[in-house]
Amino acid sequence: MMNKSILEVNGLxxxxxxxxALDRLDLDVRPKEIVALIGPNGAGKTTFFNxxxxxxxxxxxxxxxVSPQTGKQSRLNGLKPNKITKKGVARTFQNIRLFxxxxxxxxxxxxxxxxxxxxxxxAILRTRxxxxxxxxxxxxSYDILEKVGLSEQANEFASNLSYGAQxxxxxxxxxxxxxxxxxxxxxxxGMNPQETADLVTLILQIRDEGHAxxxxxxxxxxxxxxxxxxxxxxxxxxxxxGTPAEIRVNRxxxxxxxxxxxxxxxx
Amino acid sequence: xxxxxEVKRSLLVSLWFVFLTFPLxxxxxxxxxxxxxxxxxxxxxxxxxxxVISLLAKAWFVRKENRLSRQxxxxxxxxTPIIQRILQRPGYRYPLAAFLLxxxxxxxxxxxxxxxxxxxxxxxYIVLGLGLNIVVGVAGLLDxxxxxxxxxxxxxxxxxxxxxxxxxxxxxPIGGLLAALFGVLLGFPVLRLRGDYLAIVTLGFGEIIxxxxxxxxxxxxxxxxxSNIPRPGFFGLEMSLDQAMIxxxxxxxxxxLVTIFVVNRLQDSRLGRAWLALREDEIACQAMGIDxxxxxxxxxxxxxxxxxxxGVIFAAKTTFVNPASFTFxxxxxxxxxxxxxxxxxxxxxxxxxxxxxxxxxxxxxxSEYRMLAFGAILVAMMxxxxxxxxxxxxxxxxxxxKKSNTSLKNxx
Lengths: 267, 412
Ligand SMILES: Nc1ncnc2c1ncn2[C@@H]1O[C@H](COP(=O)(O)OP(=O)(O)O)[C@@H](O)[C@H]1O
Ligand SMILES: [Mg+2]
Fold this sequence. Notes:
The complex is a heterodimer. Chain A is 37% helix and 23% strand.
C-alpha cells in the first residue's frame, strides 16, 4: 500500500423499512485512485453514494474521511450534505440534477459556493472584496467549463444542453466544489461511443490533477479501462473486489451478472 | 390550422359548460310567486361564448407552438421579448429610467393629491411585491402568510408609539427588524417543509397573527384597533393633510428606489444564485455545499423585513390599524402581484403591482368583482404565460479581461 486511505467505510448498513439496501459494506479509497463500483440494478450502489454524501443517514457502520492535505480525520455519519461537500467530497447524480433554468456557467458557479463567503452586506454594498470574489468565481468556473468542454455553451440554459453535455456539466459543477474525492454515478449512461471516449479522457485528466474517483458504471469497457480497482456489489453486499483482470474471471461476479447456471469466462 | 377534432373538442367544452352553469344561468326560481322561469337564451350565450373562447385559446396555442418551433434554431436573443430587448440596451434603459423617475417626481404636482394617494398605495404594493418576490419568486418558498409580517410592522409602530411614544423614523427600522425576527422564528421550524406543506403552515401563521391581534384586547385593543397614529414627521415641520400625503408619496418613491437597488444587487450575487438554485433542486443544492436552512432563512427573513417596513409605513399613512387590514386577502393580492408579474423579475413585479392595484381603483365597477377578476387573470396567466408578464432573463458574465458580452439581465 503506497498511500494511506482517504476514505474508509466500515460495516456500512442502510435499511429502508424491511429492505436492507446496504449490508455491512467495507470499502476504502486511496489518493488519486479510480475505484469502480459495479453490480446489477438495485444492488445499492446509489444508496451507498447517498449515505456517503449525507443524503441518507446510515442505519449502522462508519464512514471516515481523511483529508490528504491536512491529514485530519473526520466521521461523516450524520453530517449534513453541505458539510460533507465542504470537507471535500463531491458527486454527480444518476438522474441528472442540474439547475435547468440557470445558465451553464451559473451551474458551475453554484459549485464554488462552499469555497466562497460573501453574504447579504457584501452583496448589497458590493465591496471590493465581494467583487473580487465574484470575478474569481466567474474565472474559475470558466476554466472548469473549458476543461469539461462546455465553454462555448457557457451562457446557454443548462436544459438546452445535449444529454452527454449535461453529464459533463454535472462533473464540472462537482469539480467546482474543489473535492479530493469525486463520486460519479453512471456518468456514461446515455452517451454515444464518441462521448464515452471523451469522458474517459476527462476522467483520466481529473485523476491526474489529483482527485480520487469513485465511479458507478454499467459500461464494462469503460470500467475495465479506467479503474485501478473494482468493487462488485449485489443485494447490498460486497461480493468481490480486485483489479479489472481479477474481476473479469471472478466466479461470484459472473454468477451475479449472468445467473446461477452460466459458467463462461467472458464477463 | 384548426382541425375538425379541435372543433369537436370545443363543442364538448361548451356542452360541459352549459351543463355546469345550467342551474345558475338558466333556472330562475321566484320564491314569492312560486314559479320557475327558464332562461333558455342564457344557455345559448354560454354555449356560444365558451365555444368561441375555447377555439380562440386553441388557435393561440397552435400559433405559439409554431412560433416556438420556428425559433428553436434562432439564438437566445431572438427569443427574448421586446420589453427585455429594450431594457437590455443601456442606450434605452437609462433614458427610460430617467423619464420614469421624472414622471414619478412630478406626478403629485400634475394630478390631485387623491391620485398621489392612490399611487402611494400602489408603490407600497410594489415594495411588498418585491419583498415577497425574494421569498416566492427567487427562492421558491410559497409563503401564503406574508401579511403576518406586514401586520407585525404596522402594529410595532402603533404599539411602540402608543406606549413609548416612539416616532416614525425610529420605529421604521425596528418594525422591519421585528418582522425579520418573526421570519426567523417562524422559519426555523417551518422551512424544512416543502411546497404545499409550507404554503399551508404559513397560511396558518398569517391567520394566527391576525386572530391574536383580534382577540388579545389587552395587547392590541382587539378588533377596534389603534387610532391616532402620527404621520411621519419632517424635522418637526407642521404639515397640512395634503402636504403630508405628498410627503408620504415621495417617501415611498425613495423606499422603492432603495428596494429596487437592494433586491437587484441581492439577486445578482452569490446569495441570489443560491436562492435560484434552491428553487430548482434542493438536493443538488445541498450536494453542491449550500446550507439549505440558512439560505432559506435569509430569504424568508429578508422578505419579512420589507413587509415590516411597509407595515410601519401603512400604519403611518392610514393613522389607524386594526386586524381587518391583515386578512388572507392581502397575502393573496401580494402573491398575485408576484405571479402575474413574473417570478423573480423586478420589472415584472412593478408591472404586476400597478395592474392589480390601479386597475380596480380606476375601474370602480370592477372592484366588486375583484376576487373574480384575480381568479380569472391568474388562471389565464397560468395557461397562456406561465412565466409571468416579464420572464426573468439570466445574466451573461464576462470572462476575465474578455470584453464582449453585454449584460442580458433585464432588471436594473
Ligand atoms: N429512499 C428509498 N426508500 C426505499 N427504498 C430505497 C430507497 N432508495 C433505494 N431504495 C432501495 O434500495 C435498493 C438499492 O437501490 P439503488 O441504490 O438505487 O440501486 P443501484 O443504484 O445499485 O441500482 C433498491 O431495492 C431500492 O428499491
Ligand atoms: Mg443507481
